[in-house]
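Hi everyone, sorry if this is the wrong subforum. Our group has a chain we'd like a structural model of before ordering constructs, and none of us has done structure prediction before. Sequence below.
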Amino acid sequence: MTLDDKNQNDILSSELINSYDIEYVFSDKPINRIKIKPKVENKSKLLENLREKISNIDNCEFKNHATQMVFSDGNSESPIMIVGEGPGQKEDVIGKPFVGDAGLLLNKMLKAINIDRNNIYITNVVNYRPPNNRKPEPAEITRYSNFLREHISIIDPKILILMGSTAMEALFGSKIKITKERGAWKEVIVNQKTYLTMITFHPAYLLRQPDQKKYSWSDLKAIGKKIDELGLKI
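Answer:
Right subforum, don't worry. Here is the predicted structure as tokens:
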């Protein structure tokens, strides 16, 4: 092809394009064909939906006797999530988890590893106070564990701390003993995602058995060390 023929073809191609009455913009930049799926709902909306699901639960002895739901406390964007057992009398009145004597001890425990409780996220396995502060039965734990798993997925923590046997049983089952399982890092799969987990004693148990505090202190130090290793900002 001669130079004249090439110029003639370029003119014809330009006239053909213009005949469609379409404005074309040519660029040497590569086309980005990867589309990011927009986030349909933010975390606050998901938490509100979960709260509504729990409030609509039927035939629940806890709900029928409690003053109100105790959903959560703290920072929902925190990389640290603590799960306890259930509300006590003071939590039932105020509407927040860990505000009674056990909550005061929890605050001190967290302070010992330089964590302000306002900077973490706290919830319980059951969201209504059990009558007479009794331990939830296996069927009740199983029922509420479905809500707990959704709760964990929404918060999506880097470290999950299970305080007490009820929290442990909700995710690991009832065939294990907390005295044997506490203090070691474990992995739990929730909705196809793996979470780094530490099982430790509940502060209420430590108030009854103060000689066990030395084990909780060991667990706390391990948690503090892991926070540093992962470079988490609390």
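For your construct planning: Confidence is low (pLDDT under 50) at residues 16-27, 31-40. The first helix runs from residue 3 to 19.
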